[in-house]
Amino acid sequence: MDPQRRGLLAAFGASALLTLFPAAAGAAARAGSAADTRLLVVLLRGGLDGLHWLPPYADPVYARLRAAAAVEEPIRIDGLFGLHPAMTETAALYRAGQALPVVAVAPPYRERSHFDAQDCLENGTARPGGARDGWLGRCVSALPAGQSALAVAAVMPLALRGSERASNWWPPLPKAVDPQLLQTLGPLYAADPRLGETFERSAQVVAQTRAGTGAFALAEAMRVAGERMGADGGPRIGFVEDSGWDSHRNQAQQLARKLAELDRGLAAAREGFGATWSRSVIAVVTEFGRTAQVNGTGGTDHGTGAMALLCGGAVRGGRIAGDWPGLGPNQLNEGRDLRATTDLRALFKALAGEHLGVPERVLETGLFPDSRAIAPLSGWRAT
Questions:
Q1: What does the mean pLDDT of the chain come to?
Q2: What is the DSSP string of 314-363?
Q3: H or E segment and range at residue 202
Q4: Handedness of CA 236, 242, 219, 178 (dihedral sign)
Q5: What confidence score (pLDDT) does residue 2 get?
Q6: What is residue 177's predicted lDDT score, i.e. its pLDDT?
Q7: How confident is the model at residue 342 (pLDDT cuts 50, 70, 90)?
Q8: CA-based nearest residue to 306, from 276, 344, 279
Q9: Is the Cβ–Cβ distance between 341 and 319 less than 8 Å?
C-alpha cells in the first residue's frame, strides 16, 4: 500500500473518526438536534443529460446543437431555462419556492468514466479510490449519538459506508420474468377464466416494472425513504439510487420516461415526509453531464458539467442557482461539454454544514478532505 493511500485510510478509519469527531459531535448535536432536519440524496447513475432535463430553451445555440432532439415545449420557469414537460410536479414545487435547480455542477473528477465519477461523488474526495467509505457515512458519524441514516437499496452504497448507524433496506422481490416466456404462455392461460385473469394481472406487473412504474421503481423507493425519514426519530440522512440514465441513443423517449418517474418520486417523497417536509431537503445529483451536441443516434455521450436539483421545505427555491457558462464554441469544455462552474462538494458541504449542523472544520477534514478552497454553496436555504 502506498504511503498516500495508507494515510488517507488512516484518516478515515474508525480510530481517526473518534479522534476527529467528539468535539465536533457536540457542536453538531447543538445545531442538528435543535432543527431535527432531514437530508435525502438521490443519485441518478448513468449521467443524466442536464440540457434535456433543464433545457436553456431561450439560448439559440441550444436549438442549433440539439436540432430535432431539442426538448419541445419545456415548462418555462424563467427567461432562459425550462423544465422537461414530464416534470409537472417539480414545476409546481419550483413555483412554490421549494425547488432550486443548480446549473453546471460536477464532482472534482472531470473525466468520462461512470465508475470513477460515481466513486468520486460518493467517497467525497477529489479522486476515484480516495476513500473506502462515503461522505454520507462519515457525516452520520459526526451527528449526535442515536441519529441514523438509511439507504433504500439492495446493497449498502459507497456513499453511506463507514458508520454503524447507517443501514440499508430493500423489499424481497420475485426474480425477473422473461417477457418472451409470458408471450408464449399467454395463449395457454387465455382459455381458462380463472387462471387467465391471474395471468393477465401478473403480466401487467411485469410490464410496469420494465417501464419503471411498477412496484419498487424509483418513485416507490423515494416514497419509502420519505416515510421512514419523516417518522418521529426517523433517519436524518437517506439515500436512494437509480440506474438507466445513460442515454447514448433515442434519448428523448428514454428520458421522457425516466424524468416522469423522477417527478413522481419527488411528489411521493414529499407526501412521505409529511409534516417533516418543512425541515427536509432532497438533493438530486448525477455523476457527470453529457455532450452539448446530440450524436448521430439521437442521444448524447459522456460529458462533464451536469445539473443538480434541491427540493424541500427547507430550500429557498423558485430561481436558478449556479453560474451558467454558456454553450458557445469557446464556452464549452474541450469544445464539446457543458463546462462545470461549481464543484459538487460545494453543494454537499452546504447541506452537511448548514442543514445537518456538521461543523466547518469537520467538513474540510473528515467529510471532504483537502477541500478548504471549496466554499459551501450559499443562498440556497430558506430562512
A1: 88
A2: TB--SS-BS-----STTTSBTTTBPPP-EEHHHHHHHIIIIIT---HHHI
A3: helix 193-210
A4: negative
A5: 40
A6: 66
A7: very high
A8: 344
A9: no
pLDDT at 289 (0 to 100): 96
Give the mean model confidence (pLDDT) for residues 108-125: 95
Look at residue 19 and tell me whether its pLDDT is greater than 50. no
Quote the cell numbers at residue 195: 387462471
Q: What cell was used for 357? A: 449542523
How, if at all, do strands 342-343 and 38-44 pair?
Answer: unpaired
Please tell me the predicted confidence (pLDDT) of residue 190.
74
For the purposes of burial, counting CB atoms within 10 Å of the CB of 6, is it exposed (0-12), middle (13-18) or buried (19 or more)? exposed
Pairing of strands 99-106, 342-343: parallel
**DSSP three-state, residue 243:** coil
User: In this structure, are residues 107 and 298 in contact, taking their beta carbons and an 8 Å threshold?
Assistant: no
pLDDT, tens digit (0-9, with 9 covering 90-100), for 126-146: 999 999 999 999 999 999 999
10 Å Cβ neighbour count for 245?
Answer: 22
Contacts of 339 (CB under 8 A, 6+ apart): 104, 304, 305, 325, 331, 332, 333
User: Which secondary-structure segment (H or E) carries 225?
Assistant: helix 218-230
